[in-house]
Structures are given as C-alpha cells and as structure tokens.
Amino acid sequence: MKHSLLVLSLVAALSACTTTSPDVIQKGDAQRLSQVQDGTVLSVRPVVVEGNQSGVGAAAGGVVGGVAGSTVGGHREGAVVGVLGAVAGAVVGNAVERMSTREEAVEILLQLRNGERRAIVQAKGNENLVAGDPVILVTTGGKTRVTRAPAVQAAPKS
Prior knowledge:
Layout: H1 2-15, E1 35-49, H2 56-70, H3 75-100, E2 103-112, E3 117-123, E4 134-140, E5 143-148
C-alpha cells in the first residue's frame, strides 16, 4: 500500500510541473521577439482552469491498484480483487491527476487603445490587477500574457 501511495504521489507531482503563470516564461519563448499592445483593465474575476486528464494518472492508478489487489487472498480471489483494484486505482489516479493540475486563475477583461475589447484567462501571478490599471499584452508564439505597464519616461530632449 505504501508503494501505491508513492506511485500516485509521483504521478501527481510530475503532472503538476506545468504552469500557465504570467511570471514563468517557457524556455522556447526566451529570446523571441514578442508583440506588445497597450490596454486598460476593465475587470478581473477569479476562475479555475480545469486540470488535465491525460490518462497518466488513470494508468498509474490502475497498475498500482491491480498489483495491490492481486496480492489479496489466493489465486482466484487475487485475480478478482486485482481487477477491482485496477478499476478503483484508475478512477482514483484520474481524479488525483485532474485535481493536482487545476490552477487558480483570473479572467481579465481589457480595452485596447483602439477601443477593441479582449478577454484573457491566465494563472494568478505576483501582480494583482484591478479595473483602471494600465497594462501591456505580450504575445509570443500565439500565447498572450497580461502584465502591469511599466512607467513611461519622457525621451531626453536633444
């Protein structure tokens, strides 16, 4: 049973290694030129991004449940309990994977300088945006993140 929990914990930990946080830049996005647009926050509301169900959790849970169940009783009982254990393990493994990959996020409604409105969902970051905040939308490789706009400094006069 300890082995079963260890395997499920490992699956949960590995599947939780991905993030959509605006504070984390993926390696493939480094040193790429990004498009930047100015905007203003109209509203921010908390949302939850549903977790993954890739099948890894179900597969790992099924294997662990099947092995654990097959050790119960004799040969015939072990086979029956092994099948039941595999099914139960798969259900539990799937739930663990889904719950461990859920993310708290925010839906940000924005107005661009040209008057167009956009909405974007991103994981909660270190910045707490509120209505009226000036922001920039940074788009790299088809993915956009919203961050507070830096203060604009006047260009030196020559």
